[in-house]
């Protein structure tokens, strides 16, 4: 998710870069001014991030391209360059990109999201789901793209069994330390949905996970099969003004409401609620998202 987050640590050597990141951006000029061949690659990367954050696309692209020639294995920069080159977007962020981002973001994710960016998507999504599940303590629930377990914390009291799935080992490690999941799996979501047994969940949550997918037809129809009839699914996306979805310079996707409604309808869901709200802040600006709750209709509710 960086560079759209606020703070990054300045690396102390080339070998550490970029997994050691939490210093404020104000430290970068000092770092960039330092000389010596070992520091030049991180300095180029830092200048790319700085330009990217303030929207200087041409400068950011040039710095990232220079950095990429030295570090071609950096899947995050490769991903960001797709956006900055206005190239054809990927169907979703690649596995290597997600694993790369969260390998270093994992250890400051909770602090950055909760303390700095006022992340409230997990709370809002659980509140929206809970309105359809009053008083339940017995849910079999899937936290899809569970990350460090922030949504898991919200839903845990309503569950008898909580399963978490995430592509990032580093995020799973953080989630494991909470001790709230009955099962945690490292897996890519679409691949996992294709092999996990069907019809087993009362509720599935995708909180801030679908921002890495373009066409939600890749995920939501597959998730449908894993809900029990009458089961519900809730998800958040960042709100987009352009239909159906846009791959933005942040490396994430925004989605138009039309796309959400078309995909859930085609998959066979019934819309329970849909509302827009502030998911978090970014550089002082509210990030508006759609919170959507849908149901897999039971035979009874179809009559
Ligand atoms: C912004 S975090 C959200 C984490 C958590 N749900 C929360 O609300 O705090 C997005 C998570 O989705 C995971 N993710 C992204 N694409 C994925 C995919 N294709 N398969 C599995 N997990 C994925 C990332 O590894 C990351 O942990």
Fold and architecture overview:
The protein has 303 residues and is of the alpha/beta class. It has two domains: 3-88, no CATH class; 113-302, Rossmann fold (3-Layer(aba) Sandwich). 39% of the residues lie in helices and 22% in strands. It has helices at 28-33, 37-53, 57-70, 75-84, 95-105, 109-116, 121-130, 150-155, 169-178, 189-195, 220-224, 257-267, 299-302; strands at 139-144, 159-166, 183-186, 201-206, 227-239, 245-247, 253-255, 270-282, 285-295. Strands 1, 2, 3, 4, 5, 6, 7, 8 and 9 form a nine-stranded mixed β-sheet that branches. Strand 1, helix 8 (150-155) and strand 2 form a beta-alpha-beta unit. The chain is globular. The termini are far apart. The structure holds S-adenosylmethionine.
SSE map:
Layout: H1 28-33, H2 37-53, H3 57-70, H4 75-84, H5 95-105, H6 109-116, H7 121-130, E1 139-144, H8 150-155, E2 159-166, H9 169-178, E3 183-186, H10 189-195, E4 201-206, H11 220-224, E5 227-239, E6 245-247, E7 253-255, H12 257-267, E8 270-282, E9 285-295, H13 299-302
Parallel strand pairs: 1-2, 1-4, 2-3, 4-5, 5-7
Antiparallel strand pairs: 5-9, 6-7, 8-9
S-adenosylmethionine is lined by residues 1, 92, 98, 102, 121-122, 145-147, 150-151, 166-168, 171, 188-189, 207-209, 212.
Counting DSSP H or I runs of 4 or more residues, the number of helices is 13
* Domain count: 2
The CATH homologous superfamily of the largest domain is called: Vaccinia Virus protein VP39
Structural class: alpha/beta
Bound molecules: S-adenosylmethionine
Reading the helices and strands in chain order gives HHHHHHHEHEHEHEHEEEHEEH
Oligomeric status of the shown chains? single chain
CATH architecture classification name of the largest domain:
3-Layer(aba) Sandwich
């Amino acid at each position: 998710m960086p560079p759209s987050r606020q703070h990054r640590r300045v690396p102390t050597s080339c070998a550490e870069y970029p997994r050691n990141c939490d210093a404020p951006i104000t430290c970068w000029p000092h770092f960039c001014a330092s000389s010596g061949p070992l520091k030049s690659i991180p300095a180029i990367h830092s200048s790319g991030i700085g330009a990217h954050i303030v929207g200087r696309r041409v400068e950011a692209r040039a710095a990232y391209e220079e950095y990429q020639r030295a570090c071609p294995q950096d899947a995050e920069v490769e991903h960001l360059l797709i956006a900055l080159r206005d190239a054809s977007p990927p169907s979703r962020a690649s596995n290597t990109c997600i694993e790369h981002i969260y390998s270093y973001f994992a250890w400051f994710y909770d602090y950055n999201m909760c303390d700095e960016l006022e992340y409230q998507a997990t709370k809002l999504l659980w509140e929206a789901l809970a309105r359809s599940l009053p008083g339940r303590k017995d849910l079999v629930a899937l936290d899809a793209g569970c990350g460090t377990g922030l949504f898991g914390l919200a839903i845990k009291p309503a569950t008898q069994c909580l399963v978490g799935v995430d592509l990032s080992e580093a995020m799973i490690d953080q989630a494991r330390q909470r001790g709230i999941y009955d099962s945690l799996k490292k897996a890519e979501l679409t691949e996992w949905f294709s092999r996990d047994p069907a019809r087993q969940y009362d509720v599935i949550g995708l909180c801030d996970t679908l921002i890495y997918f373009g066409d939600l037809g890749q995920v939501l129809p597959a998730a449908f099969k894993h809900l029990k009839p009458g089961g519900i699914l809730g998800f958040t996306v960042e709100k987009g003004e352009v239909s159906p979805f846009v791959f933005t310079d942040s490396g994430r996707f925004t989605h138009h409401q039309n796309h959400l409604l078309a995909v859930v309808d085609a998959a066979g869901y019934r819309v329970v609620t849909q509302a827009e709200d502030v998911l978090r802040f970014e550089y002082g600006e509210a990030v508006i998202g759609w919170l959507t709750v849908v149901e897999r209709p039971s035979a009874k509710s179809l009559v």
